[in-house]
């Protein structure tokens, strides 16, 4: 029964049933063979790739396009110029093509009210999308075939828009092939097979680069590197290699051009003929290897190969040369604050001031003063955590010891990550800075939630398919029965705060605190990198594997979350935040009041409270660590309920930093370790999703305003819960 087997392998939750042999034959006969030479349609290029990698094409689409598709699908609408075919039964509309979804509700909407609101303006795209077996969104799960056709651009434009590792280029109409390499790493590639003779190409491109380089052409991350580099005393060169296609009969030679920014020659641009790609790329790589000085710009934001924890410990007030400089006219032009400002405000962890704190389990820490914070800040008047409720036996680890590579402490860390996936981290001493930041951010949280609701709602970006910003009270479904949550939260993007992406609109109470957020994010990230470093060594992965999947300066879904849960009426105390595993890698959580509960593994386990301990963060692992290690490390299920005992009458604020894998990282078992269990046969065929898609799927899936079937689909938005229960997936 090959039919059944395939369905199980590729899509466990909503099995995909492939067309039977007869339908497949028919379809194959109909399918036009792409031409061998010359003008192959772009979709062929992509679908060939798909066949090889088995990664659904939807995940390969440029992120802007994907995001638009998701958001339109969410509101149950139709999109001009997109045709989706379900399992071989073509359903097209002439003229205004529409999305035809299996989902009845969406289909009913098609062609009605929403249609006129939808417009795609991205030109120059043509893709064929086949056999989507696993998609981030449940509606897409039911689609087996998608064709996207973009019309050519109406006018000559040459702009790039940045999107993770995918850059979209709306090209000059004559531009056919374009690749941009930055420091040997490929960042952009538009490579349709149908290149044509474009004699004027390089002149016009150069003209654009010269004219608009600073404003329009370069993606923001290149601009940021340039800005940082210009603010530094280091000399560097930035190489942009632009590959383009010409008609071989034209016989043009390699062209090299240099582009200058005011005051500094920083870009060396090469235009390379298509036929010389391999050669040129090989040369480029060689250059970087042989002249490491040229790659300084990357080390400005820490080299991708270096661990994030400072190899040389710094004191709280020390700054590097780079941080001291920074008054370049360019250093401040893209964002409210520069990275150097942010770095100056951050408290670097000082491993030499390590305190010799006891590292006992929670059952042995009852003598710690539990009612207040480690840092006296006037909020110690909170009611006490009761001593008659079941608490989870989390290990309490010491940051100081872990930083000092204390072998016993590292063993306890490993144990905590494998057994429960949750532990306390005593931050006192080396982490005093982050504790101060946390105290300040709790106050920021209070101010934020005091804003009028209409003001907060302006920052709900759900309809833009973004999980950053505000989520109102009751906006998420917490269980299969459709009950809704009882908290508000606000997600603040690390990429935004560290100027790696365009800033999102934010209320003044937040936008004035960017340096504080930056400091908190950098310190939290440093702690996480230290944890990842120990885990990497323990797992026997190649050096820096885990750290390099979580580089602070790379695009990721990392975020701070400020949460508020008001007291609930005695007669109606419900779940505040539904049970879940965290979507990313490592979470750093600050609690003042109880209410957080974990569900230990095992059949008969029941929910236990996690008692907040002053001076300690609660650390837990998320889905990515479970995926990377095929369940060896745990991403534990947890939830938030009304705080226990007297605490139930207080408003519960909490503060979280979520570290997630970089956007393009695949959520699947990592190679290169003997300790990570092999995937079983069934899992091997599983198609991996990128971290970005994983998080979007999980974060927005429960928002009932966009996913009308959030309760029904509850399970399809889950992460590694079953793995966490150690029940298999
Ligand atoms: O508020 C808390 O204590 C936990 C929050 C949490 O688990 C989350 O936001 O993922
Ligand atoms: Fe969580």
Automatic annotation (TrEMBL):
| UniProt-annotated stretches for the region Disordered | 1-43, 295-334
Give the Basic residues compositional bias ranges. Answer: 27-38
Tell me which positions the record assigns to the signal sequence: none
Where is the sequence biased in composition, kind Polar residues? Answer: 315-334
InterPro entries the UniProt entry points to: DIOX_N, IPNS-like_FE2OG_OXY, IPNS-like_sf, Iron_ascorbate_oxido_reductase, Oxoglu/Fe-dep_dioxygenase_dom
Domain Fe2OG dioxygenase: from-to ranges: 556-661
**Record's family?**
Belongs to the iron/ascorbate-dependent oxidoreductase family.
Q: What is this protein called?
A: Fe2OG dioxygenase domain-containing protein
């Amino acid at each position: 029964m090959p039919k059944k087997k395939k369905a199980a392998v590729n899509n466990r939750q909503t099995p995909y049933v492939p067309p039977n042999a007869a339908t497949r034959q028919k379809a194959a006969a109909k399918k036009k063979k792409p031409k061998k030479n010359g003008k192959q349609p772009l979709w062929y290029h992509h679908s060939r790739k798909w066949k090889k990698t088995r990664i659904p094409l939807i995940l390969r689409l440029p992120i802007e396009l994907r995001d638009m598709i998701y958001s339109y699908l969410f509101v149950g609408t139709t999109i001009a110029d997109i045709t989706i075919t379900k399992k071989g039964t073509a359903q097209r509309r002439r003229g205004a093509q529409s999305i035809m979804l299996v989902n009845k509700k969406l289909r009913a909407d098609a062609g009605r009210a929403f249609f006129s609101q939808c417009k795609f303006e991205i030109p120059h795209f043509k893709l064929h999308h086949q056999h989507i077996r696993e998609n981030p969104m449940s509606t897409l799960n039911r689609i087996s075939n998608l064709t996207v056709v973009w019309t050519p651009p109406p006018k000559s434009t040459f702009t790039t828009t940045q999107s993770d590792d995918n850059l979209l280029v709306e090209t000059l109409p004559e531009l056919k092939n374009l690749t941009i390499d930055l420091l040997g790493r490929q960042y952009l590639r538009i490579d349709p097979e149908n290149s044509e003779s474009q004699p004027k190409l390089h002149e016009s491109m150069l003209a654009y680069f010269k004219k608009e380089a600073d404003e329009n052409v370069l993606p923001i991350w290149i601009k940021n590197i340039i800005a940082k580099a210009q603010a530094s005393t280091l000399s560097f060169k930035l190489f942009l290699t632009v590959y383009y296609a010409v008609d071989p009969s034209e016989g043009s030679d390699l062209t090299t051009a240099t582009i200058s920014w005011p005051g500094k020659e920083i870009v060396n641009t090469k235009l390379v003929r298509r036929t010389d790609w391999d050669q040129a790329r090989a040369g480029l790589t060689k250059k970087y290897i042989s002249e490491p000085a040229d790659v300084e710009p990357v080390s400005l934001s820490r080299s991708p190969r270096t661990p994030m924890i400072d190899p040389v410990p710094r004191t709280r007030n020390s700054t590097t040369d780079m941080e001291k400089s920074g008054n370049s006219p360019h250093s401040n032009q893209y964002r409210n604050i520069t990275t150097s400002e942010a770095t100056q405000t951050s408290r670097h962890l000082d491993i030499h001031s390590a305190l010799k704190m006891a590292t006992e389990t929670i059952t042995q820490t009852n003598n710690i003063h539990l009612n207040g914070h480690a840092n006296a800040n006037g909020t110690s008047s909170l009611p006490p955590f009761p001593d008659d409720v079941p608490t989870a036996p989390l290990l309490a680890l010491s940051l100081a010891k872990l930083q000092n590579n204390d072998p016993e402490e590292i063993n306890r860390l490993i144990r905590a990550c494998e057994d429960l996936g949750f532990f306390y981290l005593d931050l006192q001493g080396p982490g005093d800075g982050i504790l101060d930041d946390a105290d300040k951010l709790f106050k920021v949280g209070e101010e934020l939630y005091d804003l009028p609701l209409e003001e907060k709602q302006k920052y709900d970006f759900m309809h833009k398919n973004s999980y950053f910003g505000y989520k109102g009270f009751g906006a998420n479904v917490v269980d299969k029965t459709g009950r809704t949550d009882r908290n508000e939260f606000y997600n603040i993007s690390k990429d935004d705060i560290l100027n790696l992406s365009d800033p999102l609109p934010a209320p003044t109470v937040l936008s004035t605190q960017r340096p504080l957020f930056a400091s908190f994010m950098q310190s939290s990230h440093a702690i996480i990198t230290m944890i990842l470093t120990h885990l990497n060594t323990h797992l026997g992965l190649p050096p820096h594997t885990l750290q390099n999947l979580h580089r602070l300066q790379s695009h990721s879904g990392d975020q701070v979350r400020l949460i508020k849960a008001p007291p609930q009426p005695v007669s109606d105390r419900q779940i505040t935040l539904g049970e879940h595993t965290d979507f990313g890698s490592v979470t750093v959580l600050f609690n003042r009041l109880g209410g957080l509960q974990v569900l230990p593994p095992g059949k008969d386990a029941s929910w236990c409270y996690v008692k907040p301990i002053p001076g300690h963060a609660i650390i837990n692992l998320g889905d990515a660590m479970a995926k990377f290690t095929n369940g060896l490390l745990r991403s534990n299920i947890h939830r938030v309920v009304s705080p226990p005992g007297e605490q139930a009458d207080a408003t519960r604020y909490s503060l979280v930093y979520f570290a997630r894998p970089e956007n393009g990282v695949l959520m699947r078992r990592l190679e290169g370790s003997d300790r990570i269990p092999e995937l079983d046969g069934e899992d091997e065929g599983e198609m991996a999703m990128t971290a970005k898609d994983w998080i979007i799927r999980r974060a927005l899936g429960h928002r009932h305003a966009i996913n009308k079937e959030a309760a029904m689909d509850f399970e399809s938005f889950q992460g590694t819960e079953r793995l966490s229960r150690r029940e298999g997936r």
